[in-house]
């Protein structure tokens, strides 16, 4: 059979046959969809302050085609695509708000992510059905991913778009055509406006083009310019829009208070936790983090030297390395929440594939009759890992099934006396006076009122504006006390406080000049 005939045969394979060939991926994807519904069955999808920011902006896009958040300010702290995606979901669902539709939205996103992960493993240099099944089980049971897909967070979409980028870039490698390059650049551009960390996808594509030995330097330069220009185009437009609306391209950002060494430690603890290892292993976190970074670097260098660039494995390894280094560096420059699983979650699937993809390859090419003996230790180790994370999942489910996913939809909030009072006593707030609070998103979600978040102590000018107010209301959620925001004691030093109501978990005050 000629090469041309082979190509024709491959191309003629129908989508139905491709689906049947990956029916195992579809089954596990449906399991993932069901698991998200199982966790959200008691009180709905998990809702955090970020979730309310996304959902309220999505509602405003749908209703008014406006990028305004719940507190009547432009969306700048986050990029625009995830709220835009949620607004499409509102339209397709006939007007259902994103929080109510969250279990379906996240279930579908998780299911597609699982399916594409399994499909990608079938395109490895040495595809293995057992390897594919082990990876699928690890992904669907991963506490790191379940934590993400239980909440209305942009990472749910970002992780999926990263997988689409990996597929699109591999397609580009087959022909190096301008058309394929534009497609992968557009996917990278969407990554950038899903999360600002999507710039790592552009960096990954740029690095892969640079080390591609099949391109002449002239083509490398032209492809880099095309890819880079398109890849950052939507992000550039988003930042310009932000700067025009507020004067700040990504919102107010504080300098980091954690040095690189400390971030490296927390990076290591997250990866150790992903591996199912207990906290007693944390003392080796820095060494483990270094091993991960050096290991990824070594894999990329070796595969580049062996001219194995035209493979899914190489794209995945390159992205994992770039994303890990980016997060470590940016967290040491700009202030984030402490390095945690959510921040690193986009690299979970790529990291899992990076450090396991060589095993089927090695077993295939070793000249040894009883190859199952070589595969057994890996299979046993993976099964032991999956049993461990399944126990973690079950414990989480046992905690959440009668309480709700932690956040604004759990029983701490739904059954709160203070929240009930806030819902039913909005008349106590006289018009004309500002309302300050340590949780403006909670005030919006439960009372549908607009309030202003108390300023961070770091921004002295904003703090002075609060104290300059002659009279204002303070809604104090006691359980959310933050050391970063000005608090009740700070305000008492400048104002006379009159208590309007007091509950175990919150209170309302009138604050006036002394």
TrEMBL record:
<keyword id="KW-0472">Membrane</keyword>
<feature type="transmembrane region" description="Helical">
    <location>
        <begin position="153"/>
        <end position="172"/>
    </location>
</feature>
<dbReference type="InterPro" id="IPR050297">
    <property type="entry name" value="LipidA_mod_glycosyltrf_83"/>
</dbReference>
<feature type="transmembrane region" description="Helical">
    <location>
        <begin position="21"/>
        <end position="40"/>
    </location>
</feature>
<feature type="transmembrane region" description="Helical">
    <location>
        <begin position="104"/>
        <end position="122"/>
    </location>
</feature>
<feature type="transmembrane region" description="Helical">
    <location>
        <begin position="178"/>
        <end position="211"/>
    </location>
</feature>
<feature type="transmembrane region" description="Helical">
    <location>
        <begin position="75"/>
        <end position="92"/>
    </location>
</feature>
<keyword id="KW-1003">Cell membrane</keyword>
<keyword id="KW-1133">Transmembrane helix</keyword>
<protein>
    <recommendedName>
        <fullName>Dolichyl-phosphate-mannose-protein mannosyltransferase</fullName>
    </recommendedName>
</protein>
<keyword id="KW-0328">Glycosyltransferase</keyword>
<feature type="transmembrane region" description="Helical">
    <location>
        <begin position="314"/>
        <end position="331"/>
    </location>
</feature>
<feature type="transmembrane region" description="Helical">
    <location>
        <begin position="128"/>
        <end position="146"/>
    </location>
</feature>
<feature type="transmembrane region" description="Helical">
    <location>
        <begin position="284"/>
        <end position="302"/>
    </location>
</feature>
<feature type="transmembrane region" description="Helical">
    <location>
        <begin position="372"/>
        <end position="390"/>
    </location>
</feature>
<keyword id="KW-0812">Transmembrane</keyword>
<keyword id="KW-0808">Transferase</keyword>
<feature type="transmembrane region" description="Helical">
    <location>
        <begin position="343"/>
        <end position="360"/>
    </location>
</feature>
<feature type="transmembrane region" description="Helical">
    <location>
        <begin position="223"/>
        <end position="245"/>
    </location>
</feature>
